Amino acid sequence: MTKNGQTQQFDKAAFKAAVEKHLTTTYATTLANATPRSWYLAMGRALAEFTTTNLLETEKTLAEEKARSVNYLSLEFLIGRLTGNNLISMGLYENVSQAMEEMGLNLTDLLEEERDPALGNGGLGRLAACFMDSLAAQEYPAVGYGLHYEYGLFRQSFVDGRQEEAPDAWRGAEGYPWEVLRPELTQQVNLYGHVEAYTDENGTACRRWVPALTVEGVAWDLPIVGYGNKSVYPLRLWECRSTAPFNLARFNDGDYVGAQFPALEAGNVTKVLYPNDNHDQGKALRLMQQYFHCACSVADILRRHHAAGHTIEELAKLETIQLNDTHPTIAIPELMRILLDEYKLGWDAAWEIASNTFAYTNHTLLPEALETWSEALIQAMLPRHMEIIFEINHRFLQVVEAKWPGNNSIKRKLSIIEEGPQRMVRMANLCVVSTYAVNGVAALHSELVKRDLFPEFNELFPGRLTNVTNGVTPRRWIKYCNPGLSALITEKVGEDWPAHLEKIAELEQFATDADFQKRYMAVKKENKQRLADWVEENMGIELDTNAIFDIQIKRLHEYKRQHLNLLHILSLYHRLLNDPTFDMHPRVFFFGAKAAPGYALAKDIIFAINKVAEKVNNDPRLGGKLKVVFVPDYRVSLAEILFPAADVSEQISTAGKEASGTGNMKFAMNGALTIGTMDGANVEMREEVGDDNIFIFGLLVDEVQQLKQEGYDPYRYYQADSVLRAALDLLDTDEFTPGQPGQLSAIRANLLDGGDPYLVLADFADYVKTHEKIDAEYRDQKTWARKAILNTALMSKFSSDRSIRDYANNIWKLDPVNR
Ligand code: 73E
């Protein structure tokens, strides 16, 4: 790496020529006719020439070094735009900016031409993207394996306040400039059919799968560029294609549509990302996606392993496979099938390899998100895998019997197969039984995994269940998205903090420095202005940047309690209109959230917030003190504007429900103060910044559990608290939907008669009181500045570099390989 972080030989004239060449030969346009979009595409292709070369070089080095690597298997990688981020990692941002300027173009504008690749739903997919960035930055040998969805997460718009969904063709008609097709890596994937017994040439009884359908997996690589180094790792995304568009025999029989059936079905497998976050829908096509992903990935891992000259017996020594939640679990029986049926290993030898290769990350305790698949479905689609799952379970239940002799209720509870009218396969149980490590994603969550989800497994396999607290990449989430803050940090602690976030702690000494406070708050103000400009331009709402910017951005889910935030807003509205003594600092409440298309209450909450926003933003009686902004189509590129502009970060899930959260970390790094419950990683953030620099409220996990056990009665809170009552009752009027009362009643009904499953009412009073404290403290700008600076300074633990080092040292046993 050179002094300014440049890892590339950069020849400006050659680069400009390459851009022009792509403009004409790849995109068939002329210099005179080129649109900003064609310039962006041509620039992307010119840059991808560097990354593709380095990707191939990195592959070669790692094979030659016989390095141990991690394979990160995930159905989701929410990578966001690559161009700006890759320029930073390559150390070429300034050079390219200058080159483009010489061609009469503004780099910042060109970067806006890129569509977000939204190949994920929320935190789980975004975590996978941060982890790839940190693996590459620290040169831990890695391949990310995912799916090449034709359509990413739906695009959201609001029509009269209601969410509408549109398909997201993220690659555009021209294709994505950063991706490279790897035809030589194509895999065949089998489906359906039956299992047959046969005797091999040695007289051994064997079994084999006779599939009914074969499809093709085509690999597209996206470059994950190591920050400040020369390594480029592949994010390998599989696209499903049909092997033969026609079944000739059936075609000749005159069955034209039937002959195309395999093509139609195969063409659908990687069409679209399932839009559910923290929810399992159990659709057959989703199981097909999962198997397709696993079959291609496992085959590719074995191909690399052999190409590097290793034997199958050495697999667990050289490769580890991390399962990002249970979505890629079917990779376990897939590897077992290959070892048993293709390599002809005995069960014990195969199990020894497989169970030492896989590790599993649990991301959620929510019962509706724990995956189960019907045995009948697996049996039909993957008959040999079902046999292998039964055998794994059979042997596992013998271990349970040895530990708890004669205890059938424990066996029923731990069994991989759930008995019932429809037998179901519990994917999490299969994972815990078949992997060498299982981790939760924050300290509290991992304790709850051990205590509440898997207590018997923890006894049976001591040491297998551990914690790795999540993190986020400081490259995208500070350096790239907050250039003002980044310049300030660099001035005070030097320029290598993005790769060594520990350095950021040196800012602590400036927290009380009046001059630094001023400059830090000036940067915050600029970032608030950038967001206000976006809102004005895109939504036509005018905002005052002196107001407190209070932001909740995450998927819409009851457990995340956007409706608690809404009730607080309603209480402020009520008090501003009815209590002449009530005073508050002006505040803008921002929301950004997509609801799963089938999640009715979540969509009702979006509608309610939009309706309240409409009224509040136009009500002169409020004197501009209260504004509500629900940004449409919340996505990574919008997050990059929202996080740096926040004064207050809303992290208000019911304690015990949010496994970690990662937005909480991005906000705090960028100097927002958190209002949060003792949930997920909030607990560890409080440990880092100290109780004075975070606003904690609400019931603790054990209090939540106790209250539920005692029999929680939301009406008690409704009757006892007149502010709460006023807020809830507003939802039953036509205040926000003139002439149409009852349009917002579903939320009130869910909270009162529906039993308030996430204890919104129980936490309301403390939440309101804590917001009053925030209001008071914001008025003292010096104190606020000190606290905001301390939040930035004390967040180094939450770099995903630290998370990856924890995985590498404690789970994967992986060493970096420097290029
Ligand atoms: O708390 C977050 C966590 O920060 C958790 O809800 C989320 O994962 C993040 C990263 O660890 C998560 N997403 C899912 N489960 N947990 C999920 C489940 C099914 C489909 C899609 C996503």
TrEMBL record:
Q: What is its EC number?
A: 2.4.1.1
Q: Which GO terms describe its biological process?
A: glycogen catabolic process
Top enzyme category? transferase
Top-rank taxon of the source lineage equals: Bacteria
Task: Tell me which InterPro entries the record gives.
Answer: Glycg_phsphrylas (IPR011833), Glyco_trans_35 (IPR000811), Pyridoxal_P_attach_site (IPR035090)
* One Gene Ontology molecular-function label: pyridoxal phosphate binding
Cofactor(s) the protein needs = pyridoxal 5'-phosphate
Q: Which UniProt keywords apply?
A: Carbohydrate metabolism, Glycosyltransferase, Pyridoxal phosphate, Transferase
What are its GO cellular component terms? cytoplasm
Task: Give the sites modified to N6-(pyridoxal phosphate)lysine.
Answer: K666
Q: Which reaction does it catalyse?
A: [(1->4)-alpha-D-glucosyl](n) + phosphate = [(1->4)-alpha-D-glucosyl](n-1) + alpha-D-glucose 1-phosphate
Q: Family, per the entry?
A: Belongs to the glycogen phosphorylase family.
- What PANTHER family does this protein map onto? GLYCOGEN PHOSPHORYLASE (PTHR11468), MALTODEXTRIN PHOSPHORYLASE (PTHR11468:SF25)
The UniProt function text for this chain reads:
Allosteric enzyme that catalyzes the rate-limiting step in glycogen catabolism, the phosphorolytic cleavage of glycogen to produce glucose-1-phosphate, and plays a central role in maintaining cellular and organismal glucose homeostasis. Phosphorylase is an important allosteric enzyme in carbohydrate metabolism. Enzymes from different sources differ in their regulatory mechanisms and in their natural substrates. However, all known phosphorylases share catalytic and structural properties.
Q: What is this protein called?
A: Alpha-1,4 glucan phosphorylase
Q: Give the classification, highest ranks.
A: Bacteria, Pseudomonadati, Pseudomonadota, Gammaproteobacteria, Vibrionales
